[in-house]
Amino acid sequence: MASRSNVSHVEELERLQASVHRAHRLLFRLEETVCSDSGITPGQRRILERLVQSGARTVPDLAREEGVSRQHVQVQVNHLLDEGLVRSKPNEAHRRSYLMQATPSGKKVLTRIRSKEQAVFRELEGPRRGANTAAQTLDRLTEAIEAWSEEEQA
After folding, report:
1. CB 87 within 8 A of CB 81
2. Burial call 10-47: b when 16+ CB within 10 Å, e when fewer
3. 49, 31 contact by CB (below 8 A)
4. How many percent of the chain have pLDDT more than 90?
5. What is the C-alpha to C-alpha distance for residues 45 and 34, in angstroms, rounded to an integer?
6. Is the pTM of this model over 0.90?
7. Comparison of pLDDT for 149 and 71, the residue scoring more
């Protein structure tokens, strides 16, 4: 393997990309496992989590924030509505786009999921150090890719 000084920036990013893909697959499986008995999917969990953390949002707002289509979020929100985990309320700013809000039941489900997930994270030996640095690196990479994407679309 090449020494660190011989590894190019491009090669470092390729290695990071491969690591992110692998970690994403494994983290998604973990999330499926901790969500499995709650009746919601990892995608529905992320929407519920965003509503709990950030307050009421419209479906288009949630879609923009999650980087997915409005239609995709609407399907997820419909399930959460059917399960009583979120509710809709009138939106003073836009009559046709209701605000979605987590219900007390939704908050309880999310708390149970997070407790299970945190228990698994406490058992993991490898990433005891450096998780914050890795998150900061990924945040910078995400910002750079978003900026590049905006330039490409302009």
Report:
1. yes
2. eeeeeeeeeeeeeeeeeeeebbeebbeebebebbbbbb
3. no
4. 69
5. 10
6. no
7. 71
